[in-house]
Design a protein that fits this description.
The chain is 69% helix and 0% strand. By secondary structure, the protein is mainly α.
Length: 240
């Protein structure tokens, strides 16, 4: 049995499972795995909405949701549809190989960000985790497009950090907190990054804290080197 393993072999197995957990956590952030969300980063690399016909379908869904919001501005399902729809439209203006957004994506990304703030204003007891992951990527895209203005880029990284913090608080695991370390560092939120790193360590198995500590350090280093650089970083635990 796996849990009867002892000694060095057991430590190796624990290390393997922790590494897989980090990779899976990063996959959740990137692709919305395990959620019902549409418009995750996987859609971005796949061309998102695709054809003009596909864009028309997405736009109609946004229009329908906007009409629902005129009746009830706090309709969280409609707010989610607007956010996902604008992100999907933005993703059609991204390089399918690198995931870098073009300037034509800015308006849709900003619409998603504005609607996200309306969503948060409803004070949901629990956020839609898939929606939160979409917003980490939307804010990252806005930061990338605002690289010429350090203040604007930092503000958008702050949005990504906020969304990442909500995800980590609701789904507590080392991988999510390591991702938060990186986004908080990009936003210049040193104290938050430090606390997130400590939380990641506290959630790690005792025998793997050194590994997680190294990953936290790497996340801080990646965030520091990319801050203001106009790139959209992959969360720690993934290949760039």
């Amino acid at each position: 049995m796996l849990f009867d393993l002892k000694g060095r072999r057991r430590r190796v197995v624990q290390g393997t499972y922790l590494t897989l957990a980090v990779l899976m956590g990063a996959g959740l952030v990137l692709f919305g795995i395990g959620s019902s969300t549409n418009g995750g980063l996987g859609d971005l690399f796949g061309g998102g909405g695709g054809s003009n016909k596909g864009n028309d379908v997405v736009q109609k869904k946004i229009d329908t949701a906007e009409k629902q919001l005129q009746v009830n501005p706090r309709n969280v399902a409609a707010l989610g549809d607007v956010i996902r729809g604008h992100y999907q439209l933005a993703s059609t203006n991204a390089d399918p190989n690198t995931g870098v957004f073009s300037k034509d994506a800015r308006d849709d990304l900003q619409q998603a960000a504005d609607t996200w703030q309306r969503y948060l204003a409803t004070k949901p007891k629990k956020i839609d985790l898939g929606l939160g992951r979409v917003m980490v990527q939307a804010y990252s895209g806005l930061a990338q497009l605002s690289s010429a203005s350090q203040a604007s880029a930092t503000r958008y990284w702050g949005g990504a950090s906020e969304a990442s913090e909500l995800i980590a608080g609701q789904q507590q695991n080392a991988a999510n907190y390591i991702a938060l370390v990186q986004y908080a560092t990009l936003a210049g939120q040193t104290n938050k990054a430090d606390l997130a790193g400590q939380k990641a360590l506290s959630l790690a198995p005792k025998g793997q804290r050194k590994t997680v500590q190294q990953q936290v350090a790497q996340a801080k280093s990646a965030g520091s080197s990319q801050a203001g650089g106009g790139t959209s970083p992959a969360p720690s635990g993934t290949a760039p």
